[in-house]
Amino acid sequence: MSWFSYPYSFYGRNYYMGRLIGQVMPSAGVHHIMRLGRESYEYPDYMLSALHVRPGMVVADVGAGSGSNSLRLAKLVGPYGRVFSSEIQPGLLGQLLMNAYTHGLSHNVIPVLATHTNANLPPNSCDLILMVDTYHECTNPPAILHGLRQALKPHGRLVLVEYRLEDSWMPNMYDDHRMSVAQAKLELESNGFRLTKLYEFLPWQHIMIFDKI
């Protein structure tokens, strides 16, 4: 395996396979993460409807933030399903717990404190793992992907939702917080996944679905 397959640093920034890794949004930016206008162009319910999440499923929301998608997933999997909400920042996990309690969903939302190298999901536990605007910030993609691959059941799916780098311009969005399909395929298919579906119906984002191989 060549040096290109490992994360590396250059002038204080991290890179992987030629891609500049995005910097993590701090927990102080929770109001930005939950901004009211976000749903008007990300359409989270429309996005989730394409994933066919069913009652009783075990799913993970990696990079869960304050829980916007985790709460939606909890409603979809119902009382007999589970949502692992994996987040690297304790402050955001605390906000997520409060939001789950407020919405009466704390019974099936399980908070998980992640690290830069591990989402800390149980092995062979997940039917689906969702990462919304998160993968591009992972500082050690091979380590994270290894753990996610282990956490998926044999026919489980990994879903990346990322802002399109292919679009020539996007408001208030740096290039290191966007990804192309080609780059995502390069990175994930080098780490034991295969792109099986690509949806482009969202205004600004790719929905990329990967199976483990």
Protein traits:
213 residues; alpha/beta; Rossmann fold; 7-stranded mixed β-sheet; 3-stranded antiparallel β-sheet; 7 helices; 10 strands
Summarize the structure.
InterPro entries: Methyltranfer_dom (IPR025714), SAM-dependent_MTases_sf (IPR029063). The protein is built from 7 helices and 10 strands.
Rounded radius of gyration (Å):
16 Å
The proportion of residues forming helix, as a percent range, comes to 25-40%
Query: Low-confidence spans: pLDDT under 50, at least 5 residues?
Result: 30-36
Q: What's the CATH topology name?
A: Rossmann fold
Count of beta strands: 10
The proportion of strand residues reads 25-35%
Q: Give the strand order of the largest sheet, numbering strands 1, 2, ... along the chain.
A: 6-5-4-7-8-10-9
Helical stretch count? Answer: 7
Which architecture would the CATH scheme give at its second level?
Answer: 3-Layer(aba) Sandwich
Any idea how many domains?
1
Give the CATH superfamily: Vaccinia Virus protein VP39
Q: Average pLDDT, to the nearest integer?
A: 91
CATH secondary-structure class: Alpha Beta
**What is the rounded distance between the termini?**
18 Å
Shape by Cα distribution:
globular
The profile of the biggest β sheet is:
7 strands, mixed
Q: What order do the helices and strands follow?
A: EEEHHHEHEHEEHEHEE
